[in-house]
Design brief:
Length: about 400
């Protein structure tokens, strides 16, 4: 039996409309009565979702991924009835618990304990049922000392710990989890994942949104990939996450190519102190390229211009994997290029890197060693180490290995 039927759902938001209070809503209504109401153009609307359909079966774990603005949180808000669809039909079955926005449903002047009762009541629990789970909720959230303190004095981490603990202990048939879990500290995130695994094993139906793709692949059975309000991929977690990574890498590479010269860094007074005029990557054959074999070095050649002579120039390179993992930092030695000058260049051969096949980006920094003042940086250089991309499952590095035959001697 399906727990969620999400059929042909679209959601539009009117751009420029911002009524944050009853007074503003009444004022706008009065204005419309005595003034000609302009007919909004189609450009006056932002379509957060466009004709999206999916179904979730009882006990299924569905992941929803995509970049910022893809429509993930809008989907959860529609499911939890925080907002209503512009068109389409949504049906949910069973008791629902939603953790879709930090502190949503909390009254700031009530204590943590009182908010547990408030949220439990909203979810349809009786007071006796809430009281039975109270000690477990408090213990899981780790808020024994603060449970009788008004939540307006809580930190963001305390908010999310209490909110998740309530959602996880109300014995809901349907649990909606948004990215707010990332607000908690590492130990709480680990505990939360363990709790969600427990809920999954108990037969709960879960819709899970996260930018942590490792959690998505480990936790979810099926995944939807949203892009600009539409489902562009649906299927098994590994396949859809791989597709998303490929799209993100392609976008990063395209952006790097289009933004050839990067951005200049400003320091005190807002004066631009230097600019990188040319930056290129070369293979061992001295050919400009953005694709390298895993076992070959790459050469970075950089030219720059400084408004004033850099007394003792220093250069640093940082290498990042496409998912944001910092892989290496290389800094020029103190005895390299010590002459003060306004027009400068440097060249460095790095590698072989022996990193796993993937897309990577470079940050280039030019600074003055005598003052530690950063003169310029550039962060839009992307390159690829060719081979089969394994989404980090093979580790960070691909070390060179020589295997030798060993003859076993008979005893």
């Amino acid at each position: 039996m399906s727990v969620i039927d999400f059929e042909n759902v679209s959601k539009a938001y009117r751009l420029g409309v911002n009524r944050t209070s009853l007074r503003e809503a009444i004022s706008q209504t009065s204005h419309n009565l005595f003034h000609r109401k302009d007919i909004p153009s189609k450009d006056a609307y932002f379509w957060a979702l466009k004709n999206v359909s999916f179904h979730v079966e009882e006990g299924e774990i569905l992941g929803i991924i995509g970049n910022n603005g893809a429509g993930k949180s809008t989907t959860l808000k529609l499911l939890s009835k925080v907002t209503l669809p512009t068109s389409g039909h949504i049906v949910t079955r069973g008791r629902m618990a939603a953790l879709i926005e930090l502190g949503a449903g909390f009254h700031p002047d009530l204590t943590g304990r009182e908010n547990v009762y408030l949220n439990g009541t909203i979810l349809g629990l009786k007071r006796d049922e809430i009281a039975i789970s109270m000690s477990d909720i408090i213990e899981f959230a780790g808020l024994e000392r603060f449970i009788d303190t008004p939540v307006k004095r809580y930190s963001s981490g305390m908010y999310v710990r209490l909110a998740f603990s309530i959602a996880a202990h109300v014995k809901a048939e349907l649990l909606l989890i948004d990215e707010v879990l990332s607000v908690g500290d590492i130990s709480f995130q680990v505990k939360s994942v363990a709790k969600m695994n427990e809920l999954r094993d108990s037969g709960a139906t879960i819709v899970f949104i996260s930018h942590n793709l490792l959690n998505v692949t480990n936790f979810c059975e099926r995944v939807l990939l949203l892009q600009k309000g539409e489902i562009i991929e649906e299927g098994g977690a590994d396949d859809v996450v791989q597709r998303y990574r490929d799209l993100e890498r392609e976008a990063a590479l395209k952006a790097a190519v289009e933004d050839k010269f990067g951005k200049e860094v400003e320091h005190s007074g807002g004066v631009k102190s230097a600019a990188i005029t040319n930056l290129e990557l070369l293979n061992p054959r001295n050919e400009p390229t953005s694709e390298f074999e895993v076992d070959e070095p790459l050469v970075i050649r950089c030219e720059y211009y400084a408004n004033n002579p850099i007394e003792e120039p220093g250069y640093a390179i940082r290498i990042w994997r496409a998912d944001g993992l910092h892989c290496a930092t290389i800094v020029s030695p103190r005895d390299y290029s010590m002459n003060a000058h306004k027009e400068g260049k440097f060249e460095v051969s790095i590698g072989p890197l022996f990193l796993q096949p993937d897309f990577y980006s470079l940050n280039v920094f030019i600074f003055d060693r005598t003052t530690d003042l950063l003169h310029v940086s550039r962060s839009n250089v992307t390159f690829q180490l060719k081979g089969i991309v394994r989404d980090g499952k093979a580790g960070v590095v691909a070390p060179k290995a020589d295997w030798h035959e060993v003859t076993l001697q008979a005893e």
